[in-house]
User: Fold FAD-binding PCMH-type domain-containing protein from Podospora didyma.
Amino acid sequence: MRSIPFFFTGAILAPLVSGLGFTESDVSLADRDIATFEDVAFGDAVLAKLSPRNTGAGSSPRCKAFPTDNAWPSEQKWSKLNESVGGALLKPLPAAAVCYGNSPAFNAAACNFLLTNASSTTFYLDDPLTILSQWAQGNTCPAARNTTGSTCTQGGFPVYVVNATSVKQVQAAVNFARNNNVRLVIKNTGHDSVGRNAGGGSLSVWTHYLKGFEFLPQYTQPGGNYRGPAARVGSGLQVFEAFANAEKYNVTLTAASCLTIGSYGGWITGGGHSPLASKFGLGVDQVLSLQVVTADGRLVTADPRTNEDLFFALRGGGGSTYGIITSAIVKSHPQINLTIASFTFTLGSTASTTPGPAVTITNSTAFWKGFDAVFAYGIPTVDAGGYLWTNGINLGAGSFTMQTRAQMPGLTPAQATTFIQPLLTTLNALGIPVTIDTPSTVVYSSQRGPLGAAPGNSRFASRIFPRAAYQNATLFAATMAAARATVEAGYVFHGLNMAPTYKAGGFSAPAGVNPVWRTAVMHADVFDSFNIGTATPAEATAAHVRLDALMGPLRVATPGGGAYLNEADVQEPDWQHSFYGSNYEKLVRIKRARDPWGVFWAPATPGSESWAVQTPNEIPSQNGRLCRV
Ligand SMILES: Cc1cc2nc3c(=O)[nH]c(=O)nc-3n(C[C@H](O)[C@H](O)[C@H](O)COP(=O)(O)OP(=O)(O)OC[C@H]3O[C@@H](n4cnc5c(N)ncnc54)[C@H](O)[C@@H]3O)c2cc1C
Ligand SMILES: *[C@@H]1O[C@H](CO)[C@@H](O)[C@H](O)[C@H]1NC(C)=O
Ligand SMILES: *[C@@H]1O[C@H](CO)[C@@H](O)[C@H](O)[C@H]1NC(C)=O
Ligand SMILES: *[C@@H]1O[C@H](CO)[C@@H](O)[C@H](O)[C@H]1NC(C)=O
Ligand SMILES: *[C@@H]1O[C@H](CO)[C@@H](O)[C@H](O)[C@H]1NC(C)=O
Ligand SMILES: *[C@@H]1O[C@H](CO)[C@@H](O)[C@H](O)[C@H]1NC(C)=O
Ligand SMILES: *[C@@H]1O[C@H](CO)[C@@H](O)[C@H](O)[C@H]1NC(C)=O
Ligand SMILES: *[C@@H]1O[C@H](CO)[C@@H](O)[C@H](O)[C@H]1NC(C)=O
Ligand SMILES: *[C@@H]1O[C@H](CO)[C@@H](O)[C@H](O)[C@H]1NC(C)=O
Assistant:
């Protein structure tokens, strides 16, 4: 039997088997643990800054070690790391390896499950490697029925994964990667759309099972202005799990709309919007305190009093950059209902009938005037604390549809009906005879639903719309013309009107999130249906050029705007300021001070320009070796 490192014995075993037990002091990596395996020794950022290329394993070569290199750690070293993490080290093959006749994992029944049923289950979300944006991995092992003649390779997937359930395992992984010049990545649920959750030739810290939860009825934020109910959450908790806990305590924990997202990994480090954004602010505004494993391997607290630089950067300054959050303390709000009034109107086709009552018209002028009128109603919606969800969709053959959901937290159905009436009156006067049914209402935390997910293979871009531009008649007209152009060109224009102001966010401590959010009245995605999986790299590049060309007029019409880094084009022009605004330079300084080694790296995050992935083609994937530039 393998030897059990002594820090995994005795009393500290309980938190490990029950998930993150919030007793970090008991389960932290101690100096005595390192005595038996020096590869997991802590780093010293101060020394490293003095001589960044002469610390850690002795030197920092131009590239991270790759499995084909002599510098790649030996099997024995990986096996010792496995002991240090209590046997939680995985060396997984891509999930779809079961579809490849020339793979040792080939299994026709398992492949059939992937192709028929996996997307309606949590299979992919519980897989240690899978990310939901397949092109970002390099698309080197797609699930397919006939893979004759093709080979499944690891591509942009990590080589090893630590399936973490304790702080100590996270620390051991960070130290091992830093000391061996191995690329480190962090994956939580895999929702990131540009590959910030993957990396070729890497060790991955998989935070999915850091699932702790504790309700704190009376919490006082150290050095901050919050005093009241809060919750302590493991960073692997998904939205549906956070909601279930919140419902149990009859409170509200603000979280993303998609129930399978990780609320306390990518969502809070990227910004985090929700249907409650106009009422309670962004994800970053929910955070009161963080427990973080930094690049030196140490576990630290970050709050307005301690490590304020990390507290700033980790709230909106990008995931996978400054450290690995193991748990967070977040605000708990009183229970609130989410009330939704929905309708759809369609030009020239009866095909699309959701959500809500649907009407079909034949007057194109009326349709596009109605399209503008719905977006104009974004202002009253956000001013009433709401979140206006819309989709403009091209149905083909000259048909278009506009799907609308006014999500109004805290209103009763009767109040929501009254609220939406002026918009319906405007649309009716244009010749669009829309009506609504009685708005639905649910306790926000009671939302549940199917938890399925499967990788997709397309790209998109986005924009944040400042109020000053949106309320300027000239610029609004230009914005609507640009939005219409995306729909006419076959893209989906997905609007989310919200106003996550400082006031809504509760005047929380300064945050690294792009300040443009504070004056925003909409964030919108422009989704491309172009399938990168079946295209040549040149065709994929041409598709990106077409998408970016359509974004140009939207950017011009929204001076002072930006883009939401979590729903974004990784090739966004001047992504530094588009994603992080005026905070960018400060975030880079924090990154350099906290991680002089470059332990953490992910595309389009602060300081990431110093490195690049050497990809086999022009698609900006994680399939390749990470090198300094
Ligand atoms: C279908 C869908 C719907 C979405 N809806 C919304 C929405 O309603 N609102 C919204 O704001 N966003 C939404 N998003 C975007 C989503 O919030 C981001 O993709 C987010 O980054 C996901 O975080 P994750 O931790 O679940 O995913 P991952 O992809 O696993 O991680 C995302 C990033 O965070 C890093 N990270 C994860 N955990 C940690 C940690 N503990 N410490 C440090 N870094 C970490 C990862 O390395 C990666 O860079 C949606 C995305 C999808 C695909
Ligand atoms: C790590 O150890 C566990 C338990 O002994 C074992 O099941 C697992 O296969 C090991 N991982 C690797 C990558 O060898
Ligand atoms: C897929 O699900 C259907 C029911 O939805 C079931 O009948 C079928 O057996 C499942 N197939 C596999 C391969 O699991
Ligand atoms: C599978 O793919 C190969 C190579 O693309 C092709 O020659 C063959 O006809 C395909 N078989 C089936 C059953 O589709
Ligand atoms: C990861 O760890 C969790 C918690 O111990 C366990 O339930 C799960 O099966 C593990 N996953 C893999 C792929 O080993
Ligand atoms: C839940 O909280 C709401 C809002 O604070 C309150 O009105 C309601 O009475 C509470 N319900 C229970 C069962 O405590
Ligand atoms: C089409 O709708 C516009 C806007 O409501 C209206 O001015 C115009 O008269 C309509 N045209 C027809 C033919 O009904
Ligand atoms: C909140 O929603 C529930 C149904 O989920 C409903 O019973 C309740 O009346 C609603 N509360 C308000 C204030 O509308
Ligand atoms: C609207 O924007 C345009 C273009 O930026 C600007 O010239 C004009 O002064 C603005 N109008 C108002 C009323 O602010």
User: Anything to note?
Assistant: The chain has a mean pLDDT of 93. The pocket of 2-acetamido-2-deoxy-beta-D-glucopyranose (ligand 3) is lined by residues 112-113, 116-117 (CB under 6 Å).
